[in-house]
Amino acid sequence: MTDLTNAAGVPHSRNASNPEKDGSLRDCGTCPFSQTEFCRAVRETDIGGRRLKTHGSVRPRQHIYKTGESRGQIVILRDGWAIRFVLTPDGRRQILSILLPGDIAGGEFLMREEARVSVQALATPVRYCAFDIADLKEIAKKDPSLIWTFVGIEIAEHEASEALMVGLGRRNAEQRIARLVLDIYERLEKRGLAEGNTIPFVLRQSTIADLLGLTQVHVSRVMTAMKAQGIMKLARGSLTILDMRALRAIA
User: Fold this and answer.
1) How does pLDDT run across 93-121, given as a tens digit for each residue?
2) Residue 7 falls inside a structural domain
3) What is the pTM of this model?
4) How many domains does the chain contain in total?
């Protein structure tokens, strides 16, 4: 596959914008995720006189990177939602996880050159900060504590995969959907992106189906029932949990 690089020599996807042109993301002081463990470890670090962090964006439903690409970066979502997914040999999609603002993608590049999964924006544009793997490894030689940050990234991805496996194997459709809604709510609430019990919600029923191993018809039936029972309601681009206790009991 052709190696695509920007002017600074940083690989990027065909669909990604030129990172250096996205000036609105350059100031860490305005980023709500600048105090996360990873960002604290590498923030404002210079290597050879250049800034470690670059920036980029993709339009809705475009890829940040695809399976088989050699991106060589860890990416932190600043705005927008994305998915990590693989395609089966017959072309069916299995979504592995939902990426929200503040989540990290590309941890696999710490261990391998080519991506084994694809990362794609959902129905919203995605803006992100990108950190070159080679630079991070150079920093880790000087500050070995960064290695534990790398380990934490890999553990988080592994735990998310385990949780999905448990849901697919041991929960029914209603429980899977309740667990998904609760998980997204808790992640957004922790990051200050919820307003009371209302959260942004851009997942289509087809996306939920491909994540949870259900049919789109089944997803529609369960979510309609939950709305009828007064557990939650959906408005355009948002979801409100009306009965948190009932949702937790189902999940």
Assistant:
1) 999 999 999 998 888 887 788 999 999 99
2) no
3) 0.81
4) 2
